[in-house]
Design brief:
Length: about 600
């Protein structure tokens, strides 16, 4: 009975609660209807007022947003930022990344990115530390002591120590290794004093020696087991080299490998986080080597390449294209016409002087299309020991003709001078490039005015190198690397004209005892002021003998599709010095607050 009563009470309470909810809902509906929906009717008369205010608010919002966008351009700059894939195109072929063998332009480029030397050149051509923290030379000037930076690593994570430095230069010194650097390191003793210190003992003073320390160091722990006679062809050089440079090996791909005329090689490199100069800011660096210059230029024009080293300048349709930046990187080198002084009409110093006097070098420079400096002696302007007092004579046709007259070249037939029935004629050999064609053409016209008949030989690059190596020419137009140091011994000392010399870089086969003594004295003094004095007899002899005609400093034309942050135009000792701060290069762009 009680249970029944309890159920009835619960039902009554439930019904009461439901009724209460229904009443509250009805009241809420009535309240909303009264205070919201019915009030919408009052909006109609003031609709224009409301629309006006809403429109004004929207207009203010739009104005604020527009102002923010406009002012952000004022307070922000478009700058390069880290990241991106950098692709550089080169003409030629890739054969060897090992720095003790690198010979082609592509070889040197890849080697420079993969390997690091003890020292390196900065943007001003001065030697600065790389793997080496510092170096000193003893009072005699024959012993150099280098201290490595702490905690150096190879790209495989192994420690880099003084043992690797000793291994590198001992390998170069061994004839079995067949390194082109062999002759430069003979007679030098290299010793590891401890893991961080290396000592170099020279047989005599050599002021330019520190510049040899920029050669890339190779790893002993990988190459010590390779027989030296097999090192040049080792897989290490082209498969997966390990260095300590800014970038490390990622892979190699060959396209059209069986077609030598259209072969392309792609070498992918990735940043090395342990690089002594800091991890590169680029995500990847790709070196693309083309055997066909037209394909190289086309790839660059289609923006498939970030940059291109232009051995032959492309047409203006490419260089003037929107976004293309031309970097004229002047080389510390000398473009000259080297007269073979050992035979023929060019053995006559009066003839050589007349050729110098009859050359309009200024006109040639004006037609180059890029700013450069004239070369008028064996040293470059601004270089230690350079003196304007020993510069070659400027163009003087009257003086040239008088010289030839007094030397017996008096008979003229068909515009050509003769002496004892011998015509005043010789050949000029040069690599067949548009720039060389212009230079040769101008010289031919200049020398024709003084009765010289010039025969020209414009050769393909490979044939030209053969002619240069064997001194197969009467005269030759080419460039020699001079660098910062005034030691030009290899180009002008008599010993370097000998067919038995290692490089035979005395292209003029110039022999002068006074010049030899001066060159030897100049390179064996450390005091700059003494070196200036010692080089004077050489400069005087060179001015009197005119073994070559100085023309101008050549350039490296480096084109980029867009701005490359960190890349600046500066003089280079070698073309690969463009990478002196490659770890700081940037190509991506973003707006950055000031």
């Amino acid at each position: 009975m009680q249970t029944r009563l309890l159920k009835l009470r619960l039902r009554r309470r439930l019904r009461g609660s439901q009724q209460q909810v229904e009443d509250i809902g009805s009241q809420a509906e009535a309240h909303i209807d009264k205070h919201l929906f019915r009030r919408f009717e009052h909006l109609y008369p003031v609709r224009r007022f409301i629309i006006g205010w809403v429109g004004l608010v929207l207009l203010l919002i739009i104005a604020v947003v527009a102002q923010d966008i406009t002012l952000s351009g004022y307070y922000q700059d478009l700058k390069t930022v880290p990241g991106g894939i950098y692709s550089e195109g080169l003409f030629g072929t890739f054969t060897n990344a090992n720095p003790i063998y690198a010979s082609t332009d592509a070889d040197s480029t890849v080697s420079k990115l993969l390997f690091a030397g003890l020292l390196k050149s900065d943007d001003h051509g001065k030697l600065v530390s790389s793997l080496a923290k510092s170096y000193s030379v003893d009072s005699r000037g024959t012993t150099y002591t280098l201290h490595l930076k702490p905690n150096l690593k190879w790209q495989d994570g192994q420690p880099l120590t003084s043992k690797d430095v000793v291994f590198t230069f001992h390998t170069i010194q061994n004839p079995d290794a067949q390194s082109p650097l062999f002759s430069s390191w003979q007679g030098i003793t290299i010793t590891a004093l401890d893991n961080q210190t290396v000592e170099f003992k020279l047989p005599g003073i050599l002021a330019s020696f520190p510049y040899s320390l920029a050669t890339g160091i190779i790893p002993e722990h990988i190459l010590a087991s390779v027989p030296l006679s097999d090192l040049r062809s080792s897989n290490f050089n082209t498969d997966k080299p390990v260095g300590a440079g800014p970038f490390m090996w990622d892979g190699l791909q060959v396209t059209n490998g069986n077609d030598l005329q259209n072969k392309q090689i792609q070498i992918a490199l990735k940043p090395f986080s342990g690089y002594e100069g800091g991890k590169p800011k680029l995500d990847k660096f790709i070196v693309e080597v083309f055997a066909n210059t037209n394909q190289l230029v086309t790839s660059f024009a289609n923006k498939e390449l970030t940059a291109m080293e232009a051995v032959t300048p492309p047409s203006k349709s490419v260089t003037n294209k929107a976004g293309v930046v031309s970097h004229n990187l002047l080389l510390r080198a000398a473009n000259m016409v080297f007269f073979k002084t050992s035979s023929g009409v060019l053995a006559d110093s009066s003839v050589r002087q007349a050729l110098v006097d009859g050359s309009n070098t200024a006109q040639i420079i004006n037609q180059l299309g890029y700013p450069t400096h004239q070369v008028n002696e064996p040293l470059l302007r601004g270089q230690l020991a350079y003196s304007a007092a020993y510069a070659q004579h400027s163009m003087d046709l009257k003086a040239a003709n008088q010289l030839l007259d007094s030397d017996g070249w008096t008979t003229i037939k068909g515009g050509t001078r003769y002496k004892a029935n011998q015509p005043l004629t010789f050949s000029l050999t040069a690599a067949n490039t548009p720039e060389n064609q212009m230079v040769v053409s101008e010289l031919k016209k200049d020398w024709q005015k003084i009765g010289v008949r010039l025969n020209t030989r414009m050769l393909a690059p490979a044939d030209f190198q053969t002619s240069l190596s064997y001194h197969d020419y009467d005269s030759v137009l080419t460039a020699i690397s001079v660098g910062i140091d005034p030691d030009v011994f290899v180009y002008w000392d008599s010993s370097q004209a000998d067919i038995r010399s290692n490089n035979r870089l005395n292209l003029s086969e110039y022999k002068n005892a006074t010049a030899d003594t001066s060159l030897e004295s100049g390179r064996t003094r450390l005091d700059p002021q003494i070196r200036i004095i010692k080089y004077k007899p050489f400069l005087q002899a060179w001015q009197q003998d005119n073994p070559a005609l100085g023309l101008y400093q050549p350039r490296l034309l480096y084109l980029t599709n867009g701005i490359v942050g960190g890349l600046s135009d500066h003089a280079l000792t070698s073309s690969t010095d463009r990478f002196s701060n490659v770890q700081n290069w940037e190509i991506n762009e973003a707006r950055v607050s000031r």
